[in-house]
Amino acid sequence: MADHRAEEPSSRSGSPDEEGRVSEDRSLLHQRLAVRELIDTEISYLHTLQLCASDIRNHLQQLPQGDLDILFSNIDDIIKVNSRFLHGLQETASKEEEQVYLIGNLFLEFQEEFEHVYKVYCANYDQALLLVDAYRKEPALQREIQRIIEAVVPQAGPSGLSFLLVIPLQRITKYPLLLQKILENTLPDAGAYPVLQRATFALQDVNANINEYKIRKEVASKYSKVEQLTLRERLARINTHTLSKKTTRLSQLLKQEAGLVPKTEDKEFDDLEERFQWVSVCVTELKNDLAAYLDNLEVFLRFRPHECNLDIPGGPVVQYCNLARDLQLKAFLEFKQRLEALVWQPLCSLAKVLVGPQNLIKKRLDKLLDFERVEEKLLEVGSVTYEEEAARHTYQALNSLLVAELPKFNQLVMQWLGQVLRTFVALQRDLAEQVLQRAEGSMTQLPHQHIPEPDFRKLVENSLGQTSKQLRSFRENFEKVLPPPTTQPLLPGSERQVQALWSRYGPGKLYQVTNNISGAGSLDLTLPRGQIVALLQNKDTKGNSGRWLVDTGGHRGYVPAGKLQPYRVVPSEEERRGQVGPHEDSRHLTPEPTPTCSVPTVTQVVAAYPFLARSSQEVSLQAGQPVTLLEAQDKKGNPEWSLVEVNGQRGYVPSSFLARAPSPAPWGWSLTS
Amino acid sequence: MSWIPFKIGQPKKQIIPKTVERDFEREYGKLQQLEEQTKRLQKDMKKSTDADLAMSKSAVKISLDLLSNPLCEQDPDFLSMVTALDTAMKRMDAFNQEKVNQIQKTVIEPLKKFGSVFPSLSMAVKRREQALQDYRRLQAKVEKHKEKEKTGPVLAKLHQAREELRPVRDDFEAKNRQLLDEMPRFYGSRLDYFQPSFEALIRAQVRPVCATSPPAPWRQARLWMHLTHRWRTTRKCTRSSGT
Q1: From A442, which residue of chain B is nearest by alpha-carbon distance?
Q2: If you placed Cys at A163, which of A159, A273, A392, B103 could pair as Cys (CB 3.0 to 4.6 Å)?
Q3: Predicted model pTM
Q4: Number of other CB atoms surrounding residue A269 within 10 Å
Q5: CB-CB: which of B33, B51, B202 is closest to A446?
Q6: A298 Cα to chain B: minimum distance (Å)
Q7: Mutate to test the interface with B, among A326, A408, A446, A478 (most CBs of B within 10 A)
Q8: A448 to chain B: which residues are within 8 Å by CB?
């Protein structure tokens, strides 16, 4: 276009204006060339990108989608941004004079978007490269990829994928250079100059920021990985380098604590960290509490009271069993499952997510100590080694990463937490609704459903009161199934003994042996059934209350308490001496000087053998005949004779001819003698 | 042969008819089963109510721990959310406590009372058994005396043995009859006894004791709905106030 102008230097002589004009023309030419270059390269760049994104990516079907995502990351976004940029560039082409100015403005406009979109791509680029290397190791796959690429983009050459993937990186770094070129060829006093200058600086900033972002990402991925190392592995990792690192850090920390060295206080970071700590504590506590809740739910579900129905068919019992079974197996189970899926799982994932930042924060502290030491050294010495510079840099990268991203992170975690809590509440609500629904459904079948609650309660109380009375009566009945085995027949001739014991110890202390006792130890007694003993002590020397010390009138010893039962003495009447035959007085019981038992029964005995009376004072007996024993001794106190009444007659009979019978039941058995 | 310590080959004399014995066994067997079921039900009920209470207590702990977190001071939205949750949990706990008390009164205590009759029953059965043994023994004695030749002393002894036998037999008969009477009645009484308990149990799920307050799960449901509504609006606020 303006070439012919530059070809005219020979026609003029060397006037400074002309020379100036010539150089001006030349720079203008160069400028135009640069602008053209910018636009042309942009077009071809975009074209290549589109080829990559559409044709090549679609043909690489045998790779899994995740790999494709890593390889091409956000290439689509880049294409969108750059197409708009190109469109803007092409529009400026029409405006000849102001083109450069407009280009500058365009760059400034697109600065942020470029940064935003390219930094993601650049940060991901390393991973993409790793993948490409992995593919290279598989020859078959590699050949396939090559074939596809050569078909579409022949100029890619043998480096194939990596050639294509690096193009965006190259482009974004080229922009400042292109701008620089345009700037060089623009006159300083042109209107576009300041704009261009600003644009150039802006693009340089973009590049610097992208770099920074990339470093941060690297640092984050390096330190946030949770490494599960065994103790041995950890020990193996210790070498002189790590040891020295750790010791210098420790010394720095101690110096800080001692106050020798000022601690770098970063209030902003500290606040952020504090909040992060609270958030993570919140999540951990919630997780623990929820675990406890789930455990209790588990325990609750384990018991099935609805399974035993007390053999009561029909009625509220069966309904309750059905209801409980329903609730247990459906409502609660569903609740538990939903709880686990919708509340517990997300909470666990949330807890896991917190681990990365925890590690980063810890690392940052370590690096801070390094950084401070390096700073110190810088102050003292004035220069630092390369490693120290790197350490410094790492710290700064970590710090800026954390400061930039922690607030968002905290907020996201809080939102997540809020969501979890809300889900928990919603689940509880659903459960409550279900319980209500089922219970109400069950209630409609109950007999008393229309009765309001307080009346129903009274009803229940009344009925329970009544039935408990009934129960008590049952219990008493069962306990009553024990008329005491009635007083056993006394051994003949023992009544005197009984009297003696009775007068000595009192009526309350007399016991009768219910079963034959055979004594084992030296102090134990052997007693036949029916023997009367008096209780001396109701426990033995060791305190065993099953063994009682008793007195038989002759011997003393221990007997098992279970074989004794209280004996009620039959009061003996005063002996009627010489009173045979029905006398009025003899019918009356004369009051005894000693207090008697209240049982005034006269013993009925049975004649064991027939007896013929030989005197008027004796009375005849028939074997088996019931007689009424009045006195167990005669008037002289001789126990061998007993005063009896038989058939209306009284008289003495030998005591040994008598046998005791317990009940006064009349019987009419008689034996023909 | 009296030196043989045990009688081999002699069948136990059936002094009570087989049908009676069978009836008795059947009734007593039913009651034994009932006892076991009552005990198990009581235990399970207790454990179930304990677990229920434990659940709601752990729910309260969730909200308490959340409240004690310093985030509440910083973040007012969070504080309001957690306070609402806390109120809800505490109320749920209170309902559960009421429900459990109700169940305790109307189900677990009656079960206990019912179960307390069983020891007396088993004692009574034991005594009947004892009486049966006595009866058998004395019956055997009577038989023994019967077989001997009839002399005076023997007859007297026989008579005496019969005299001893009679009250024991009557005693046994009485015990047997009483138990045979009472056991089915006791068994049948469980129907009347437990119906109101279980009815109350169902009702407890729906309505608490106090008549003035609305039923428990209904209240719960309303509370939860309140809560979720509030949180939805809060979330909208936080969303609109910026990321």
Answers
A1: B202
A2: A159
A3: 0.60
A4: 17
A5: B202
A6: 9
A7: A478
A8: 199
In the 8-state DSSP scheme, what is residue A546? T
Q: Residue range A14-26: average pLDDT?
A: 69
User: Which class for A556: exposed (0-12), middle (13-18), buried (19 or more C-beta within 10 A)?
Assistant: middle
What residues of A are in contact with residue B192 (Cβ under 8 Å)? 463, 467
Contact B55 A296 (CB under 8 A): yes
ipTM attached to this prediction: 0.74
What average pLDDT score do residues B150-166 get? Answer: 81
| Phi, psi for residue A354 in degrees, rounded to 5 | -70, -15
- Give the mean pLDDT of chain B: 77
Asked if B198 lies within 8 A of A426 by C-beta distance, the reply is no
Suggest the residue from B132, B205, B226, B241 to mutate for an interface test with chain A (most A CBs closer than 10 A): B205
CA angle A623–A624–A625, rounded 5-degree value: 95
Amino acid at A621: L
A chain contacts of residue B190, beta-carbon cutoff 8 Å: 310-312
- Closest to A628 (Cα-Cα) out of A608, A648, A657, A610: A648
Residue B67: pLDDT band (50, 70, 90) is confident
Distance between first and last Cα of chain B: 106
Provide the token pair at B77. 């939205």
pLDDT digits (tens, 9 = 90+) for A616-649: 888 888 877 778 888 777 777 777 888 888 887 8
Question: Which residue carries 């007390």 as its tokens?
Answer: A310
Instruction: Examine the pLDDT at A487 and tell me if it is beyond 60.
Output: no
Per-residue pLDDT at A262:
65
Q: A425, A433, A456, A466: best mutation site toward chain B, by most B Cβ within 10 Å?
A: A425
Quick: pLDDT tens for A281-324.
888 888 888 899 989 888 888 877 666 666 666 566 677 777 77
Kindly provide the b/e burial profile for residues A570-579, where b requires at least 16 CB atoms within 10 angstroms of the residue's own CB.
Answer: bbbbebbeee
